[in-house]
């Protein structure tokens, strides 16, 4: 039941007056759009060289499974930018990689590049003060997606969440980078050490791709829609004005943190200062493959999106799979319709469906795994081939996730992708779980490219090899079994007894619809 406005207004007023920090309800913000593609600079020369063999409708793609390369290519684009950087992301962590990217974006802005940063509001590594400071920097604009007005105070925030749950529960999970209107990166990676192989706790096995060509214009339209939406809040309005002395003090502190980060970064292949990336871009002409692509996305608006969900758009344009569907997702909580679709594809139509998900040992969110595990038998009985990624994969695969000399405790699967037959690829931010399908905003790119599909098939087959994954099956008595190069086991792989205990208790919580 909706709270009546004559009740809500006084209550909120009391909470705000009681000391809860809050932000203005609807501050003015200018409408802005992506700049025209750059006409000069390294990125223009590199794009023209790569696309020389492509038609006007085609885009060039290169997959980036290696975490260190994912950070290097982001830095390469930002360091080489001459006109614009548009970055949209769910999580931006205040750690070595997060500060490094922010410092390089700052350097780009100082040389005149126009920067727009769109961040979701849920992860709190960016404080309101930090957001406002960056947003007030020359040539930089920052917006936060769907922030609640009450910013501090346990009572006020709890009341706000209880009365606006549907609105505030909707988060922006999209991730994309567009530079100079010429190049882009999309995929599953956020910004933070686990996504770039720099975390000693765990690093992700992830995937995104760098691209240039026709689809960049669609990515720019996608970004503009979110940037100018009613739920994109101007960062400069999130905190009071600071004096020049306070600004200088905070700027000096940030520089000190970036300087300390060199201790770790200088041991890697990640350049701690801007460099000339000409050689790397010259290599792309022989490394990229071609295809045609479309961007598909949820609407950013909170209300009225029921008929325009991303999964419905995918269903409308995806081809009919004739042979094999390969699905990689870090969080798998399927619907009844999805399980029935698998059953129909395999048992009625003779197709193959292969699923790769993390084992509990390779899952960074045990709660999500606890609610996935009850679907194992249903997926297997429907005819799916089920593989669970190992938390301790082969040294060769681990080397793509850990950035030398970092060695993490385990590798977590975070890739989100689909390969349909021998031709089609879907890559982006979508998980196969209720939160991605029904709650958050997501985006995916659907690509018609046999060459790219082959690369993803080869990577998929490597990840499901016995040294990297467990194949989950049912024995003659209907009992689950896990088989890998380590042999056959009767109980699910875990990182230890503590995780097994957590798994048991998380399973008891009625939170599946929110995962």
Architecture overview:
Helices cover 36% and strands 21% of the residues. It has 515 residues and is an alpha+beta fold. The chain has 18 helices and 20 strands. It has 2 domains: 59-284, Endonuclease, Chain A; 297-514, 2-Layer Sandwich (Endonuclease, Chain A), CATH 3.30.870. The longest helix is centred in the middle third of the chain and has 22 residues, at 244-265. Helix 4 (96-110) packs across helix 9 (244-265). It has an 18-stranded mixed sheet, sandwiched between helices. A two-stranded parallel sheet has the order 7-14.
Summarize the structure.
This protein is of the alpha+beta class and 515 residues long. It has helices spanning 5-17, 42-50, 67-80, 96-110, 128-135, 154-163, 165-168, 216-227, 244-265, 278-282, 310-317, 336-348, 366-372, 376-381, 395-401, 434-439, 450-463, 497-508, and strands at 59-64, 84-89, 114-120, 140-145, 176-179, 183-187, 202-205, 208-213, 232-234, 289-297, 324-328, 352-358, 385-389, 410-413, 417-420, 424-428, 443-448, 469-474, 480-484, 487-489. α3 (67-80) runs parallel beside α4.
Mean pLDDT across the residues is: 93
Number of domains: 2
Fourth CATH level, the homologous superfamily of the largest domain: Endonuclease Chain A
Biggest sheet details: 18 strands, mixed
CATH class of the largest domain: Alpha Beta
Q: Count all strands and give the number.
A: 20
| C-alpha termini separation | 24 Å
Q: Any guess at the CATH architecture of the largest domain?
A: 2-Layer Sandwich
Q: What structural class do helix, strand and pairing data support? A: alpha+beta
- In DSSP terms, counting alpha (H) and pi (I) runs of 4 or more, how many helices? 18
Low-confidence spans: pLDDT under 50, at least 5 residues?
Answer: 1-19
The helix content is 25-40%
Strand content: 15-25%
């Amino acid at each position: 039941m909706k709270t009546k406005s004559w009740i809500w207004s006084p209550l909120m007023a009391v909470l705000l007056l009681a000391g809860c920090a809050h932000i203005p309800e609807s501050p003015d913000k200018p409408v802005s759009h992506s700049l025209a593609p750059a006409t000069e600079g390294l990125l223009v020369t590199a794009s023209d060289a790569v696309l020389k063999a492509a038609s006007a409708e085609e885009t060039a793609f290169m997959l980036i499974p290696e975490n260190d390369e994912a950070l290097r290519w982001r830095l390469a684009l930002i360091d080489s930018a001459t006109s614009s950087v548009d970055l949209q992301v769910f999580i931006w962590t205040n750690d070595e990689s997060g500060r490094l990217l922010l410092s390089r974006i700052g350097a780009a802005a100082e040389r005149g590049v126009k920067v727009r940063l769109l961040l979701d509001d849920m992860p709190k590594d960016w404080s309101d003060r930090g957001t406002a400071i960056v947003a007030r920097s020359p040539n930089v604009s920052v917006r936060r997606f769907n922030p609640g007005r009450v910013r501090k105070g346990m009572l006020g925030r709890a009341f706000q969440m209880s009365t606006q749950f549907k609105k505030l529960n909707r988060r922006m999970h999209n991730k994309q980078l567009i530079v100079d209107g010429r190049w882009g990166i999309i995929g599953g990676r956020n910004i933070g050490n686990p996504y770039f192989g720099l975390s000693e706790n765990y690093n992700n096995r992830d995937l995104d791709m760098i691209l240039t060509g026709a689809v960049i214009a669609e990515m720019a339209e996608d970004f503009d829609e979110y940037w100018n939406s009613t739920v994109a809040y101007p960062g400069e309005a999130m905190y009071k004005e600071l004096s020049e002395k306070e600004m200088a003090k905070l700027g000096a502190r940030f520089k000190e943190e970036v300087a300390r980060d060199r201790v770790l970064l200088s041991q890697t292949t990640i350049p701690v200062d801007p460099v000339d990336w000409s050689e790397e871009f010259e290599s792309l002409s022989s490394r990229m493959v071609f295809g045609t692509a479309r961007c598909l996305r949820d609407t950013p608006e909170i209300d009225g999106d029921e008929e325009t969900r991303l999964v419905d758009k995918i269903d409308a344009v995806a081809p009919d799979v004739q042979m094999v569907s390969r699905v990689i997702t870090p969080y798998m909580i399927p619907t009844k319709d999805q399980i029935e679709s698998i059953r129909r594809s395999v048992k009625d139509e003779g197709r193959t469906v292969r699923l790769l998900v993390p084992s509990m040992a390779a899952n960074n969110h045990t709660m999500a795994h606890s609610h996935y595990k009850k679907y194992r038998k249903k997926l297997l009985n429907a005819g799916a081939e089920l593989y669970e990624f190992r938390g301790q994969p082969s040294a060769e695969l681990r080397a793509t996730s850990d950035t030398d000399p970092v060695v993490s405790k385990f590798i977590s699967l975070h890739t989100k992708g689909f390969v349909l037959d021998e031709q089609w690829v879907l890559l982006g931010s979508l998980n196969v779980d209720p939160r991605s399908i029904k709650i958050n905003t997501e985006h995916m790119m659907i690509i018609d490219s046999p060459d790219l599909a082959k690369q993803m098939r080869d990577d998929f087959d490597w990840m499901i090899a016995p040294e990297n994954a467990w194949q989950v099956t049912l024995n003659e008595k209907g009992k689950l079994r896990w088989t890998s190069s380590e042999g056959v086991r009767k109980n699910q792989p875990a990182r230890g007894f503590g995780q097994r205990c957590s798994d048991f208790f998380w399973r008891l919580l009625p939170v599946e619809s929110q995962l």
